[in-house]
């Protein structure tokens, strides 16, 4: 049963994002930023964790989960280091994901022949 809830939740999030892309003039980059910010705000309000427990991996749609991870990192760093933690917490919490994206993107550029749009 939990797989079905996870599948439906992730699918609904993706469907809502696709509708937003199709029905508005928002570009994909702005929608991605909107999703990251939404994840951070949901984490701040304490809504993301219960939602994640209910929806399982469906709530871990990468950008919502990334925003929540950034928020958790900032929260922990501020608790440890005070005000300066606000600037370093997000980087510390998300460094592995960002590094992996950069490394695998770079390796993919060698494996495939990218075509630039004119």
Topology:
Blueprint: H1 2-23, H2 28-45, H3 48-55, H4 62-81, H5 85-111
Low-confidence stretches: none
Radius of gyration: 17 Å
SS element count, helices: 5
Question: Structural class of the helices, strands and pairings?
Answer: mainly alpha
Global mean pLDDT: 84
Q: How do the SSEs run, as a string of H and E?
A: HHHHH
The largest pleated sheet is described as:
none
Number of structurally distinct domains: 1
Could you give the count of β-strands? 0
Helix content: over 70%
Shape designation:
globular
- How far the N terminus sits from the C terminus, by CA atoms, comes to 48 Å
Please state roughly what percent of the residues sit in beta strands, choosing from under 5%, 5-15%, 15-25%, 25-35%, 35-45% or over 45%. under 5%
Walk me through this protein's architecture:
There is one protein chain. This protein is globular. It is mostly helical. The protein has one domain (2-111). The mean pLDDT is 84. The protein is 81% helix and 0% strand. The protein has helices at residues 2-23, 28-45, 48-55, 62-81, 85-111. Helix 4 packs antiparallel against helix 5 (85-111). The longest helix is centred in the C-terminal third of the chain and has 27 residues, at 85-111. The chain is built from five helices and no strands.
Quick summary of this structure?
Pfam families: SpoVAC_SpoVAEB (PF03862). The protein contains five helices and no strands.
Please describe the structure with a list of short key phrases separated by commas or semicolons.
membrane; mainly alpha; transmembrane; SpoVA/SpoVAEb family sporulation membrane protein; 81% helix; transmembrane helix; 118 residues; SpoVA
């Amino acid at each position: 049963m939990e797989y079905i809830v996870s599948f439906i939740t992730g699918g609904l999030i993706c469907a809502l994002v696709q509708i937003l892309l199709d029905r508005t003039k928002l570009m994909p980059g702005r929608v991605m930023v909107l999703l990251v910010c939404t994840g951070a705000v949901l984490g701040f309000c304490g809504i993301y964790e219960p939602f994640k427990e209910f929806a399982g991996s469906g709530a871990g749609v990468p950008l919502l989960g990334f925003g929540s991870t950034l928020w958790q990192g900032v929260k922990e760093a501020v608790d440890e280091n005070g005000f300066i933690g606000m600037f370093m917490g997000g980087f510390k919490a998300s460094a592995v994901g960002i590094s992996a994206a950069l490394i695998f993107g770079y390796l993919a550029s060698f494996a495939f022949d990218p075509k630039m749009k004119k």
